[in-house]
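re: ur question from yesterday

yeah so i grabbed the chain u mentioned. its 445 aa long if i counted rite. heres the sequnce exactly as i have it in my notes:
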Amino acid sequence: MHKSTFLRLLGVLLALALVGAVACNDGDKDGATKTPSDKTPAATTAPGGEVPGVTETEVKLGTHTSLTGPIAAYNVIPRFTLGYFNYINDTKGGVNGRKITYIEKDDAYSPAQAVDLTRQLVEQEKIFALFNALGTPNHLQVIDYLQENGVPDMFVATGATEWVKDPATRPLVFGSNPNYQGEGVVIGKYLADNFAGKKVGVIYQNDDFGLDGLAGLKLGIGDMELVGSEPYEVTDPDLNSQVDRLKSAGADVVAFWATPLMQGGAIKHARADLNWDASFFISAVSMNELTALIAGPDNIEGTMGPVATYMAQQTDNPGIAAHIAILGGTDIGGTGSVLTLYAQYVAELMVETLTRAEEPLTRASLVAAAESIKDWKCSVCLFALSLGPDDHDPAQGVAMGVYEGGLVKITSTAYSWEGVAVADLSPDTLETLEVPADAINATNP
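ran it thru and got these structure tokens back, copy pasting raw so excuse formatting
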């Protein structure tokens, strides 16, 4: 990639590396078929039968998110989501004749502010649904309030299993990212299939992000020897001591659940300082250009991890080309990144859900619409996704990516856990996926 492109991406992503991941992030098995009306709390309409946030010409969505504060780099997600909704309003007239109003409340990554702002959105702004709320610790403080008030909680912006592990208990909440435990099972299976007999070490962030990943990895590696699992806190200055201990323990392969600054620094220390030739596997959270820039292209060469979309530099792909064009009409500019690609995926998913919702548009019909999605594929996604009454976990397929020359390239190895509840995840529940031919090693610097 050209140096200028790296610098633009660095400006977008640098703050992402300064803190932990955004927490970074089983259905009912009794055989009964449940409809949304069976599961949805009653408080879905305002007094007089009106549906909050819905008129003949408008549908009002809202979110608590980080526009400022310690993880302000994530603000590219709500900013581009708003830009995409504006694009839909301008070019399509909205969805089913209603323009989308998207109200973004800045909680600055404060759980207390998230509570106050969510109440404002529901009780004062009268939103129809919350959409793509950012941050596990923040959202945990409001998820039950939303359920109790009958507010759909659409496509939460982390991969924590908390959102998707039990749709029967929380019927109004839907995830968005590939969940971290599924990601861990995929990495573990890849290790078991390709590194049999090798010793495994793990470094993980000590929260939902890392703990979910670690749980999945342990399932995936089977009887491979785990010689060390090293936690770290988001306040730690680096991962040098964790890397040192795993090298001393004789690990041949190391899996990381870490954010880009910590991840890149750990790889640089291992390669440049210790001359350690272990094989490294990293979370999708850090499979981006910033991690390579921090580690150094030579140091990160060969490192692998899961990906779910085409890469932003694959501009020969029509979906990526259109993505860049839409970006150019926003205040973000025309340089794509893993964050803008995620934003487009989840915005398209919300538009698809609204499009499918039966009239008259109600909160129950929105949930039913989401649960009706089968084999749908966004314009920048590698794989199709499905949802259902007992499956609120949309993105359940990933390909393995590998760093070559400082860029993430997509390989032909991919797995799916489509329709598998979190409680049932195991290597045996994974199925292989066919990666689109135009995605494999087709990056365009």
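noticed a couple things. The two ends are 5 Å apart (CA to CA). also The chain is about 35% helix and 15% strand.
anyway ttyl
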